[in-house]
Amino acid sequence: MENKDKTLDYNPFEHRKVKRPNSDIRSLANLLKSSLGSGILAVPLAFANAGWGVGLVGTILIAFICAYSVHIFVKISRDCCKAARKPLLSYTETCVVAFSIGPKRLRPFSRAAGIFAEVALLLTYLGVCCIFTVLIADSIKQLCDTYLPNYILSVEYYCLILLPPLCCLVQIRYLKWLAPMSLIANVLLISTFGICLYYIFKDEIIMSDKRVVGYPSRFPAFLSTVIFAMEGIGVVMPVENNMKKPEHFLGCPGVLMIAMTFIMILYATLGLFGYLRYGDELQGSITLNLPMDDWPAICGKIFIAISIFFTYPLHFYVVGDVVTRVSEPYIKEKYQNIAQIFGRIAIVCFCGGIGMAIPLLEQIINIVGSVFYSILGLIIPGILDSVVRWENLGKFNWILWKNFLIVLFGICSLVSGLTVTIFDIMEKVKDK
C-alpha cells in the first residue's frame, strides 16, 4: 500500500530536466508537421479508391481512432513514468515498463516487447524517409523536365542528387532547432494546400461521374493511405517529452486535440474536393496533377519539395534516436560525435538507395501505412492499455473489448493493405 502511495505521489513533470524545452506553439508545430506531411497530398487518391462518401466518413473515423490511440499511449507512458519513478520515457521504454508492471505472466516478455517496438519504430521511419526522398525527387523531376527539356533525367538520379543536402540537414539533433524549420514547412504546406484548392475550384466541379462508394477491393488501399497520412505516433513521445509544459499536451483543448482536429479538417477537405476535381486521374501526390504552365502551380510544386525537405529531419529524428540508444553503449565517448555524423550519413544514403531501387511512391506509402503505422499507432497502444489496466478493466471488461476492437482494426488494416499493395506492385512490374 505504501509503495502504491509513493507511485501516486510521484509527479514525473516535476523531475524532468530537458536541455532545450519547447513551448506549446513549437510543440504544436512539430506535432502538426509529424502528421501533416506528404500524406495530405496522397489523400485525394485514397478518396478515389474508396469513393467520396466512404472517404469522407472513413477519414473522420480514422482521425478519431488515431487521435484516441495516441491519447491512450501518452496516458500509459505517464502511468509508467509514475510506476518506474522516471521523469520521462520514450516509446520503446514505455512498452518495456508497461509489460514489467502488467500481469505476472507477461513480465518476462518486457524485453521482447521493447525490442519489437524499437524495430517497428526504426522500420517505420526508415520507410517515411524513403517516401520523402522519392516525393522530393518526383517534384523536382517534373519541374526540370518541363523547363530543362534538354536534360531529362530519371527520378533515381534526382534521389542521388538529394543525398548531400539531406546528409547535412540530418546533422541537426535537437527538436528545438528543428521547430523553426517545421514552422516554415507548415506554412509552405498550407500554401500548397491553398494552391491545390485554387485549381480544384477554378472550374465547375462535376460530381455525376464520381463514385460515392468505391470498389470494396480498393478499401484497404484507402485505409493504408489515410493511416499513413494521419499517424505520427513515433514523434509524439519526443514532442511530449521535450515540452516546457507537458501537462498541456492532453486535455481539452490540448496540443494533441488542436493538432488532430486541424489535420482532420484539412485531410477531409482536400481529399473530398481533390477527388471530385481529378477523379481517377489522380497520382500519388495531388501536386503532380497540377498544370505545368501556371506560376501558382509551379510555386505549389516548389513549396511542397521545400516543405518535405524541411520535414525530413523531424522524421529522421526518430531513426537517429533509436540508432543512438542502441549504439552508444558500444562506442567510446570520444568517438560518439564522429560516429553520429557518419551513422546519419549512412542511414540517409540507405533510404536514398531504397528510394532509387523502388521509386513507386503510392505503393511505398501503402506499405508503411498498412504495416508499420498500424503496428505502432493502433496495435501496440491497444495491447499496452489492456496490459497496464489488467487489474481494473472496467464494468463488463469494457476496456478490454474496446482495445480488442482497436487491435482488430489495426490487424485488418495491416493484412488487407499489405495484400492489395503487393498485388499493385506485381501489376506495375508486369506493365514495365
List keywords for this structure.
432 residues; mainly alpha
Order of helices and strands: HHHHHHHHHHHHHHHH
Q: Give the total of beta strands.
A: 0
Distance between the termini: 68 Å
Mean pLDDT: 83
State the low-pLDDT regions, or none: 1-5
Q: Tell me, what's the shape?
A: globular
Strand content: under 5%
Radius of gyration, CA atoms, in whole angstroms: 22 Å
The largest sheet, given as strand count, sense and whether it forms a barrel, is: none
Helix content: over 70%
Q: In terms of structural class, how would the helical and strand content be classed?
A: mainly alpha
Total helical segments = 16
Outline the structure in words.
It is a single chain. The protein is mainly α and 432 residues long. It contains 16 helices and no strands. The chain has helices spanning 2-9, 12-15, 24-35, 39-50, 52-84, 91-100, 110-147, 155-169, 175-200, 219-230, 233-241, 255-278, 295-327, 336-357, 361-388, 398-431. Helix 5 packs across helix 10 (219-230). The longest helix is centred in the N-terminal third of the chain and has 38 residues, at 110-147. The N and C termini lie far apart (68 Å).
